Amino acid sequence: MKALILVGGQGTRLRPLTINMPKAMMPVLNRPFLEHAIRRLAGYGIREIILTQGHLSQPIEGYFGDGGQFGVSLRYVVENSPLGTAGAVKNAEKHLGDRFLVLNGDVFTDLDLAPMIRFHRERKAVATISLTPVEDPTRYGLIETDPSGRVSRFLEKPSPDQITTDMINAGTYVLERRVLDGVPPQTQWSFERQLFPSLLESGQRVFAYPSPAYWMDIGHPKDYFQLNIDLLKGRSSQHIPARPDEVSLGEGSQVDETARLTGPALIGRSCRIGPKVTMSGPTVIGDNCRLDEGAIIEESIIWHDTHIGAGTRVVRSIIGEGCHIEAGSIVNDSVLGDNVTVAAGHRLKVGSRVWPGKTVGGEDKGDDTA
Ligand code: GTP
């Protein structure tokens, strides 16, 4: 069976992290998000994967190439303008078999695919939608089913009094190719709002497959942050730390003997952790990062090639690639795009989102967030 992964979204809600980097390439435990998904599919023996792209396609092709290094064969289908989720699959129709898998490219899950595919086959479904329970279903589209698992109703962004289930669409589908007959070519079309409801209206066999498996949609920075934390804490079967407080150090990284590191934490390759640095987990540090004397890092995710100056304090923040957090500055609960400089001694406003390439503090007295 082939699989198609949707990676063409704009990732608007994740800005500034997705201005120069597609959501699928954002590092999760120092590997692109998409690499986890591709390796998982390869683990199921799925060898042919189609990536439907639009926004920022080059970084993905540059990293994954033909997929051989990851044990799969990759085909890229690029949209000239965004076609939406179902429109993107329609656009790749000629490369698909009679039955195939579709994965949202921003969902990290331990969902077991083999029983889901079996369920789909046994129910003679045209579409099977994976479901996951969530605490607050009002943010999502709900899916109601009958006792056999057949979908009876879709409910988009329900009000609290309309909530009859906590099960939402988990973004993994098994589909029969003929469902695409109802999707107009080269037209923006959505699974959730158009294709699935229309299949239901025309009486077709749409089923839902609930699973309690680990699931995280990285739509917002806080979800992306939480995913990294969950993985460090061993909440997914895809990353089991040796110990709950494990500090894992990449090849060629050096830690000064006076630094105090508390896990869980992952430090990439070729990093230099200076004297009297204090790092408390859960924290991820990318490759080639430098943390100077006395820096304090708490519960943060720092991407590759970033420099954290002496005596700085970085707390519950996401710091993009190639940033400079200069000596004595403070970054709290913030999200910084790539190549941002926080000038020496600057205290960034709590909750800032700083756009790539900006310098904040120092001579620049402008808005931290623009
Ligand atoms: P926001 O802009 O923040 O809403 O994010 P998004 O549009 O990137 O993500 P959304 O959750 O709406 O989409 C779910 C999945 O479908 C993600 O993996 C997106 O990359 C992908 N996706 C969304 N729209 C398109 C599209 O027009 N074409 C393709 N190929 N993929 C899409």
Would you kindly provide a written description of the structure presented here, covering whatever features stand out?
It is a single chain. With 370 residues, this protein is α/β, with parallel strands linked by helices. It folds into two domains: 2-232, Spore Coat Polysaccharide Biosynthesis Protein SpsA, Chain A; 247-360, Hexapeptide repeat proteins (UDP N-Acetylglucosamine Acyltransferase, domain 1). The protein is built from six helices and 32 strands. It has helices spanning 33-43, 58-64, 84-91, 113-122, 191-201, 221-232; strands spanning 2-6, 27-28, 31-32, 48-53, 73-78, 99-104, 107-109, 127-133, 141-145, 151-156, 167-176, 206-210, 215-217, 247-249, 254-255, 260-262, 265-267, 272-273, 278-280, 283-285, 290-291, 296-298, 301-302, 307-308, 313-315, 318-319, 324-325, 330-332, 335-336, 341-342, 353-354, 359-360. Strands 5-4-1-6-11-8-12 form a seven-stranded mixed beta sheet, sandwiched between helices. Strands 14-17-20-23-26-29-31 form a seven-stranded parallel beta sheet. The protein is elongated. 43% of the residues are buried. Bound molecules: guanosine-5'-triphosphate (GTP). Residues 6-13, 23, 52-54, 79, 82-85, 88, 104-106, 219 line the site of guanosine-5'-triphosphate.
Q: Distance between the terminal alpha carbons, to the nearest Å?
A: 45 Å
Radius of gyration: 22 Å
Provide the structure class: alpha/beta
CATH H-level superfamily of the largest domain = Spore Coat Polysaccharide Biosynthesis Protein SpsA, Chain A
Bound molecules: guanosine-5'-triphosphate
Number of helices: 6
CATH C-level class of the largest domain: Alpha Beta
DSSP, total strands = 32
The number of domains: 2
- Order of strands in the sheet with most strands: 5-4-1-6-11-8-12
CATH topology of the largest domain: Spore Coat Polysaccharide Biosynthesis Protein SpsA, Chain A
Question: Can you give the mean pLDDT?
Answer: 92
Helix percent reads: 10-25%
Which second-level CATH architecture of the largest domain applies? Alpha-Beta Complex
Q: Would you identify the regions where 5 or more consecutive residues have pLDDT less than 50? A: none
